[in-house]
Amino acid sequence: MLFLKNSNYFCNLFIFNNCLNYLNMRIKTKNKIIENWRFLLGLPKSIIINFRYLAFKDAVKLPILLSHKTKLKNLRGKIKVEKVKFGIIKIGLGNSQAIDYKYYRAVIDNQGEIVFKGKCKITSGTKISVLGTLVFGNNSNIGGNSVIICHKKIEFGDNFLSSWETQFMDTDQHPIYNMQNEIINHDKEIYLGNNVWIGCRCTIIK
After folding, report:
1. CA trace torsion 136, 142, 147, 150 (10° rounding)
2. What is the rounded average pLDDT of the residues 46-55?
3. Angle CA 110–111–112, to nearest 5
4. How many CA atoms lie within 13 A of 129 on its CB side?
5. Tens digits of per-residue pLDDT, 108-130?
């Protein structure tokens, strides 16, 4: 009797594990389909940004992939990609637990220079405004609905990770004058080193 009870237990456990594996497989398949669909929708904008900024031999490899919801507000600046590989940089793609892809979109306002040193993922809802130099290290990940405002220089090191709704600003976006009518709040560089993690809703300023 004890053997039969144990057999039933292990049999039920085996069935349960198989069901979980099946559900996980279905979820992964669904996510893959959604990811591929979003890639196809964003292909026109991906082509625009690659051929706008990169040499033809690099642009045809499509190292930068955009969501179709990404707003290209200003493209007067420069983009430098140090490692050219298909899809190594993703902007506006991917999900975050706290960000609904349906209601948020990334915004790029590039009037300076953006440098990608390797793999980079900028999740949906993130707004980037660059007048200076913005550098992303290899394997960097910016969480959803974040804000990056760069007037002088902001650099993220390798393996950088930030959670959702973080802010990075190297400028006050307005001058402050002393009694001699001199500006006392100049823009200053921000550098975040390798293997750094920033939690949700943190603000990093100069």
Report:
1. -10
2. 95
3. 95
4. 9
5. 999 999 999 999 999 989 999 99
The CA-atom distances, in angstroms, between 126 and each of 26, 54, 55, 170 are 29, 23, 26, 17
Q: Is the pTM of this model over 0.85?
A: no
Q: Which amino acid is at 75?
A: L
Average pLDDT, the chain: 85
Q: Rounded CA gap, 82 and 69, in Å?
A: 26
**Residue 128, token pair as written in the block:** 């980037």
Residue 194 CA: distances (Å) to CA of 59, 122, 161, 197, 201: 28, 17, 10, 9, 20
Per-residue pLDDT at 49 exceeds 80? yes
Q: Which tokens go with 130?
A: 């660059």
